[in-house]
Amino acid sequence: MLAISEFDLIKDYFNKSGLIPTTEQSARIPLGIGDDCAVIDLPPERLLAVSMDTLVADVHFPAKADSGLIAQRALAVNLSDLAAMGAEPLAFTLALSLPKVEEAWLQGFSLGLEQMIQKYRCPLIGGDITKGPLSITIQVHGLLERGKILRRDSARPGELVYVSGELGAAGLAVSLLGNGMSLDKPDTKELHSAYYQPVPRVILGQSIAGIASAAIDISDGLMADLGHIAEQSGVGIVLNAKAIPISKAVKNFMGAMGDKSKGLNLALTAGDEYELALTVAEDQQEELQQKAAEINVPLTLIGRVVKGSRVKCLDSDGREIDIKNSGYRHFS
Amino acid sequence: MLAISEFDLIKDYFNKSGLIPTTEQSARIPLGIGDDCAVIDLPPERLLAVSMDTLVADVHFPAKADSGLIAQRALAVNLSDLAAMGAEPLAFTLALSLPKVEEAWLQGFSLGLEQMIQKYRCPLIGGDITKGPLSITIQVHGLLERGKILRRDSARPGELVYVSGELGAAGLAVSLLGNGMSLDKPDTKELHSAYYQPVPRVILGQSIAGIASAAIDISDGLMADLGHIAEQSGVGIVLNAKAIPISKAVKNFMGAMGDKSKGLNLALTAGDEYELALTVAEDQQEELQQKAAEINVPLTLIGRVVKGSRVKCLDSDGREIDIKNSGYRHFS
């Protein structure tokens, strides 16, 4: 059998036009794949945001899933972290562990990456391919404007809490996959894309940088991630249960299962959502809504920042709702 | 059983003094662990070098090895890539996959990292901890001076070829480990450190940036990595077998095994070495040697860049030596 080296794999599947920096991008990336390091030339007035996420087969995605979808999901969850800082995507690196070399798998994976790279203008600049259990680690790099960084530690009492999009579909998908169900039926199409092709809120993040006071992507679940803002900002947060935007697919499915709250718990606690939760001062509210409308991203007012330290969700009678779990726990 | 979240692990083992940026370093790292992204503030006259390497258990290290040594090796092999570009270490990110949470393992790992961080002044600024087969991906970030970048594609015919240190010890260690032998005996001490605690040539790289014409770290083996310089520079390279610096431990061991060339093949082809190979114009030779002497790093003249495309090693009669393999092949 022919031995295939890492260098051949890189040349055949990753160091090719469509994945690597364009001529225009190469001013910022003077050196990409092929040397000991890649080189980034940062514009002097900008800061660099970096974030790294790993997706392990059968932990973060089914090992048998389509490799193009795995690639898209892997890049999307990382781009979501750039979005949550208000950063503009610049480039990414990829560490890929593969049990063996399968041409069709690699073709699909590289095509999935290419679609994301073209869409988000975020080329591949380097990484590593190793033999090992299937696992994908990506580090994204983005550009930040000084003074316009969406941090977690800057929410203040009296501010309003917003969330983008509708919640619960990815969480429901995870739950169905976990029970051995397929997502390939027509009526689970929305769940399938919510899980495999989450849309990172990259444009929203950049639009609200300098307007929102704090932001986070809710990949660990809305309550858990608002908990991070609360903890790091030293505040409490009160949510209005009625206002939580629950995905229609989730309402339908949970309704059919006899869930009276029709997915509220799922929307509050399920991980794998890549919407942004953010806080904003009242006098910035109008500008925030205008920006969101301009880029056509739904943004819902769901609560308020208060003095205190906890995140609570209240029903229409002002009673605290008992939450069944508090987000994804990584080593439970 | 108590569920331990990723956040607890980060707080207990990784987001603590000794690992994260010092007050002095925080000017360049305005935001480290704890938000969606870390933030790097690059000095305007510098470029950023980035490199990413993965170490998979039982592929790149024995799964049962001491976790402090695993940590040291993981960071060293990445720092070596910065060295090979002439970059000054700035900070690193870490993606750690763990099958389960073991306190003693994590204590050792975090201590191993701390020792490297202190020595190379390269703090931890972020990353990811996931449940999965044991695997460590690190991305290092370093600072480059414009015009002083050690690339692979800039060697020219007529230049001289040098290598730092002595070769073969890590390769022999890999070979013994692969045959189920232990490296914990007194007479394998040198092999043990060559494998687990390779010394990245960080100071050498920075010293010769602007003097050497091309450089590479020889983690895939001397011949294979010089092959990358040859290919990317469009040149040939001729090595002098007699001049190759072979480690004493390797000479002794191979001599005892009846190897007449006493480890030459190992020194030419074994991977896992983290010395630097470099090319230099003749009129820069003196300055190069002076720099190496100043920082007390042995540097040996081993060959010459020629017109052509191949890397050859010649014996004292000028005959080409037949090489048994050409370095580590990642998917053989």
TrEMBL record, chains A, B:
Q: What is its EC number?
A: 2.7.4.16
- Entry keyword set: ATP-binding, Kinase, Magnesium, Metal-binding, Nucleotide-binding, Thiamine biosynthesis, Transferase
Quote the SUPFAM superfamilies the UniProt record gives: PurM C-terminal domain-like, PurM N-terminal domain-like
Q: Where does Mg(2+) 2 bind?
A: D53, D81
Choose any GO biological process term that the UniProt entry carries and state it.
Answer: thiamine diphosphate biosynthetic process
On whether Kinase is a keyword of this UniProt record, the answer is yes
The record's InterPro entries line, in alphabetical order, gives: PurM-like_C_dom, PurM-like_C_sf, PurM-like_N, PurM-like_N_sf, ThiL-like
- Specify one Pfam family: AIRS
Q: Where does ATP bind?
A: G127, D128, R152, S219
Could you say which residues bind Mg(2+) 1 here? D53, D128
**Tell me, what is one Gene Ontology molecular-function annotation carried by this entry?**
magnesium ion binding
The PurM-like N-terminal domain covers which part of the protein?
34-143
Reactions the enzyme catalyzes: thiamine phosphate + ATP = thiamine diphosphate + ADP
What HAMAP family does this protein's entry cite?
TMP_kinase (MF_02128)
Protein's recorded name: Thiamine-monophosphate kinase
What is this protein's gene name? thiL
